């Protein structure tokens, strides 16, 4: 019964978004989405999400200084930096390496770098989370990833790379939207929106149970909290937040 309703509503949604499906079929949506649409829309959504997540992020990143390396420096790598909305939460003097698979966020990125001159920006790498080969093994104290694991091709490969680049005792920080409780209306709507949402928002998956991937990864210590963030009219309320230690 639910399966049939999901399929019917998915079809209605696909019909509403048919121009995008057509552009995608012609190979024109993906480049436009990556260069223009996604950076623009993400900027608008980020404003809302940043307000809602601010206190969670302050709480999350509070213990970042505890993971300074033996030299007293904190070398931090961010996967999927986007426009740099996390910079404000990093401690002064922190050495930041930014990575993103999409290099089209320059405008917001340079704005946020100017705003956060308390950090040292080491380099910017165009790289996918699954392939950070430009970063030496065991070379960073902390890795940060917020709203990124929803759209990587392989969550387990990304987490393997995270563990590779972290030094022993280093920490991986995350804040991600996840699948809702399976018996809930939220999950029903996530299933309905999933194919169209994934196409429109550059591969973002609504129904990933990311806490399972994190539990399967080889962290020596893992703290995960399930929270709800009120995002009006968006199927991304359920989130997980926390950190894992290598």
Automatic annotation (TrEMBL):
Domain of life according to the entry: Eukaryota
Entry keywords, A to Z: Membrane, Transmembrane, Transmembrane helix
Keyword Lipid metabolism: no
Stretches assigned to the Methyltransferase type domain: 77-174
Transmembrane regions: 7-29
Record Pfam families: Methyltransf_11 (PF08241)
Gene3D superfamilies listed in its UniProt record: Vaccinia Virus protein VP39
One MF annotation (Gene Ontology) recorded for this entry: S-adenosylmethionine-dependent methyltransferase activity
Name of the protein in its database record: MET7A protein
Organism: Chaetorhynchus papuensis
Lineage: Eukaryota, Metazoa, Chordata, Craniata, Vertebrata
Chain's gene name: Mettl7a
């Amino acid at each position: 019964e639910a399966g049939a309703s999901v399929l019917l509503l998915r079809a209605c949604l696909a019909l509403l978004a048919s121009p995008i499906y057509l552009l995608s079929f012609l190979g024109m949506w993906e480049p436009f989405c990556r260069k223009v649409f996604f950076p623009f829309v993400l900027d608008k959504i980020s404003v809302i999400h940043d307000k809602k997540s601010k206190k969670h992020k302050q709480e999350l990143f509070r213990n970042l200084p505890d993971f300074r390396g033996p030299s007293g420096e904190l070398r931090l790598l961010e996967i999927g930096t986007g426009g740099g909305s996390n910079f404000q939460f990093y401690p002064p003097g922190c050495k930041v390496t930014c990575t993103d698979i999409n290099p089209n966020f320059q405008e917001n990125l340079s704005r946020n770098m100017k705003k956060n001159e308390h950090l040292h920006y080491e380099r910017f790498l165009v790289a996918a989370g699954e392939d950070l080969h430009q970063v030496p093994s065991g070379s960073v104290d902390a890795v940060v990833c917020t709203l990124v694991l929803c759209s990587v091709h392989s969550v387990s490969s990304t987490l393997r790379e995270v563990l590779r680049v972290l030094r022993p005792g280093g920490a991986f920080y995350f804040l991600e939207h996840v699948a809702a409780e399976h018996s809930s209306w939220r999950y029903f709507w996530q299933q309905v929106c999933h194919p169209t949402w994934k196409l429109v928002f550059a591969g973002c998956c609504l129904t990933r149970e990311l806490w399972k991937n994190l539990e399967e990864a080889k962290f020596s210590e893992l703290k995960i909290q399930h929270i709800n963030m009120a995002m009006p009219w968006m199927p991304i309320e359920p989130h997980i937040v926390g950190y894992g230690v290598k």
